Amino acid sequence: MVRPRQPGDPHAPAEGLDALLEAAGTAFEAGRTEEALERAEAAAARDPRSVPALHYRAAALAELGRIDEARDAYEAALARGRDDLDLLAGAADFYVNVLPDDDDADREALDRGIALARRGARLAQKAGEPELTADLQLVEAIALNQLGLATEALERLASAERGQPERVEVLLEKGFALYELSRLDPARAVLLRAEALDPEEPWTQHTLGLIAERRGEEEEARRRFARARKLAPDEFPRPVALAPEAFDAAVEDALASLPEPVRRYLSNVAITVEDLPSDDDLLAADPRPLSRRPVRPEGVDGPLEPLPLLHRALPEEPGALRPQPGGAHRADRDHPHPRGRPLPRAGRGGAVGPGARLNPPKN
Fold this sequence. Notes:
The structure is a single chain. The chain is mainly alpha-helical and 363 residues long. Among the domains are: 14-127 and 342-363, Tetratricopeptide repeat domain (Serine Threonine Protein Phosphatase 5, Tetratricopeptide repeat), CATH 1.25.40; 241-301, no CATH class. It is 56% helix and 2% strand. A two-stranded antiparallel ribbon has the order 1-4. Strands 2-3 form a two-stranded parallel ribbon. β2 (273-274), α15 and β3 (310-311) form a beta-alpha-beta unit. α10 (184-197) packs antiparallel against α11 (202-214). It is globular, with a radius of gyration of 23 Å.
């Protein structure tokens, strides 16, 4: 009589590769990530060339927050399966949506994600998989938006929208790109379409609030910000109470905390503080995206938007500074990653593994 194999039982019959992969996929989708990692490592030990095994291992490490190990694992998997569509989708998502935001390293990661997403989209298109093609175009557009390349992002999103015209994530990202370009009316129209499809998406509400703020529609802005905060209070905290004098002092403190060479350079630069920046100021340079990568000047208990001009955001209450959302954003509500982007391949549940496809992985 053959008894069931128990984990760690050296006398139990060894599981075959297919069984190990199936067990890894089942555990991963059920959220049993440690078990998924154990099964994936057993599968990789059984066949070190198995791309699904290497991919499951990388995805499980990412889900467990073991980011450096996950990065190495993804690269090891890509060395074996550079044309595997599941792996390309998962690795692109990892580099764009999972890796922490870390300035120069962040740029390198986004560039790597863009390259993987483009390669995957080309292969998916050749393979006749329009949904996967749109998924990868969306991932690339997310990275381009993060890099401040909103015009290029719109090009990718146009292709993704043709394949999935009613997909909320695509419309939302398009709205972000249009907002970054100060094309407020088109951005609002796209976001209203997204709202009609998913009224409970907090980032739609927040960005519509930003647009209303820029258009001078104070009551609409307050309503939208309040709605976003109600839907996702951890992502959208209440405004920080900060009187104008305190704000000015915080700006001075922030300037004083800069390195001496930077302070010396800024001594010949006029630093202005405005309630909102003008369109001319916003379009005069190529700043980091308006709605992401918040920074915290010393003395301010809440993030500010990284705009060409330091400015006071429209207060929701007298003397209040409305903070940009901190931490994860546009997030999976249950398991936000450091970037917190929607995950096209795994239903917003975590790192993208081979089992995210409709068909089981093939070894």
